[in-house]
Design goal:
Helix content is about 40%, strand content about 20%. It has seven helices and seven strands, in the order H-E-E-H-E-E-H-H-E-H-E-E-H-H.
């Protein structure tokens, strides 16, 4: 069985909730990613910050990214998947919650992320087409 760990990209890193958005943007640039999981003081997932969140939720609202924290933009219940979960569970989690990035957790620690690009690399054309139809048709 192919697992979340098999299809994720490694090297994902947390950003502490107290860290500013300008620092988050720098980390995204350095890691060449568009999203960072947000960790609370106990290193528990409390949200995911995207580059779009920074632009729409901070800059476009006239706020200063050097004065706004990642935690201030963390909303809702963060979603994640266990490393040993099967690909079908990954697809279902992303579909049901309409999310494009999914942190992968092992032993309560972040070990990777799954994005649409990872799905495109690891799924068959039929699996990918079916998933995309279900996700994007719901919009």
């Amino acid at each position: 069985m192919t697992t979340a760990k098999d299809i994720m990209h490694t090297g994902a890193q947390w950003i502490p909730a107290h860290e500013t958005l300008d620092r988050a943007a720098q980390l995204m640039r350095e890691a060449n990613v568009g999203a960072l999981p947000i960790a609370d003081a106990d290193e528990r997932l409390c949200g995911i910050l995207t580059d779009r969140d920074i632009v729409v939720g901070c800059v476009a609202m006239g706020h200063d990214p050097a004065q706004t924290t990642a935690g201030e933009l963390a909303k809702g219940t963060p979603r994640w998947i266990e490393a040993e979960s099967g690909v079908d569970e990954v697809l279902q989690e992303m579909e049901v919650h309409q999310i494009r990035r999914l942190p992968v957790i092992e032993n309560k620690r972040l070990i990777g992320m799954i994005s649409e690009a990872d799905l495109a690399q690891h799924l068959s054309d039929e699996q990918l087409a079916s998933w995309m139809e279900r996700v994007y048709a719901r919009g």
